[in-house]
Specification:
Bound molecules: flavin-adenine dinucleotide
Structural class: alpha+beta
Radius of gyration: 19 Å
Number of domains: 3
Length: 316
């Protein structure tokens, strides 16, 4: 049986890596192993090796929808995104640090081809540079293409579902498969990737020609809306809860009297009650406690169960 150091260069593997450096909440304990892969072949080799060794593997995008427990993760966190420590931003053109094939972006005709490790901000910027409209909604979502495919990321009326024509996946048995947009079964903050255990390798986006300046204006307008409504100055994972049908999570939370509710350094944002934020030195346990208290109090107040959008990982 090959161990991970015999299938990947040692400088792509870190032991006891603090996950707080890789998650937008800026909290979380260490993963036993943190592995960067640069290509589909490296991902496949890592996946096989970890499976053979019986080590749990978690695929991390930009860590913008994850809460890792303070006890960390007993297994390997594998990422295909470029080194982004400290560079998570909710808006703007984030092109720094592209390292490889899985982070590459290419425009061809009305299509954008992107590796799953590329950021959503970067594909939106590439589309604009290629005079293509349709990805403006993605410019302010701080995740990766891979995470965006899993979650069917969306904002301001746009979502991945509208623009993805196909996605290439690495299945858990090591085979690759290309699925059409329909086969991706995109729904509200979900896709086929939520359950099938596959890794997204890349995606193709079909867009429409438009004037780059008009596209830039739309992106600026959306960024301004975000800055106005969302507590972007604090670490968070965006909207903490899914939108319950016929309601808004933020409104239900406010009606339950929870605006500004806090446990330790974690709390409900004053600016947008749908965001649980880290006010500076929160632990993951405090963030989780706020999330669970909000769910309980909203249920008591309204009879509506708020479901988490944020994914919990590891030991709390
Ligand atoms: C300030 C802020 C604003 C936000 N605004 C929005 C918004 O407007 N709309 C919205 O939809 N979301 C928003 N989010 C949430 C988040 O950015 C999205 O859910 C995003 O799609 C997550 O991408 P990620 O790369 O960070 O994924 P991660 O958080 O790293 O992972 C999310 C899930 O995807 C899986 N995953 C990651 N990469 C792959 C891959 N290549 N193959 C298979 N599985 C993979 C992970 O295993 C995990 O299950 C916001 C977050 C923040 C912090």
């Amino acid at each position: 049986m090959d161990d991970i150091y015999s299938v990947l260069p040692a400088d792509q593997i870190t032991e006891n890596e603090p996950m707080s450096a890789h998650c937008s909440f800026r909290t979380g304990g260490a993963a036993d192993l943190f592995i960067r892969v640069n290509s589909a072949d490296e991902l496949k080799a890592a996946q096989k090796c970890l499976k053979d060794e019986g080590k749990p593997m978690f695929l991390l995008g930009r860590g913008t929808n994850i809460l890792v427990g303070d006890g960390g993760f007993r297994g390997a966190v594998v990422t295909m995104t470029a080194d982004h420590a400290g560079s998570i931003s909710a808006a703007g053109d984030d092109r720094q640090g592209w390292i490889d094939e899985l982070c590459a972006i290419k425009a061809d005709g009305n299509r954008i081809f992107a590796g799953a490790g590329a950021t959503l901000a970067a594909i939106a910027a590439s589309a604009r540079d290629a005079a293509l409209t349709g990805l403006e909604f993605a410019s302010g979502i701080p995740g990766s293409v891979g995470g965006g495919l899993v979650m069917n990321a969306g904002a301001y009326g746009g979502e991945m579902k509208q623009v993805v024509v196909s996605a290439k996946l690495l299945m858990s048995d090591g085979s690759t498969k290309t699925l059409s947009g329909d086969e991706m079964k995109f729904g509200y903050r979900m896709s086929v990737l939520k359950d099938n255990g596959a890794a997204a390798l890349s995606a193709v986006f079909e867009l429409e020609p438009d004037d780059p300046e008009t596209i830039t204006d739309r992106m600026r307008t959306l960024a301004a809306k975000r800055r106005e409504k969302q507590p972007l100055e604090y670490p968070s994972a965006g909207s903490t809860f899914r939108r319950p049908e016929g309601h808004f999570a933020g409104k239900l939370i406010e009606e339950a009297g929870l605006r500004g509710f806090a446990i330790g350094s974690a709390g409900v944002s004053d600016k947008h009650c749908g965001f649980v934020i880290n006010r500076g030195s929160a632990t993951s346990a405090e963030i989780r406690a706020v999330i669970e208290a909000v769910q309980k109090r909203v249920y008591e107040n309204s009879g509506i169960r708020l479901e988490r959008e944020v994914i919990f990982l590891g030991e709390f």
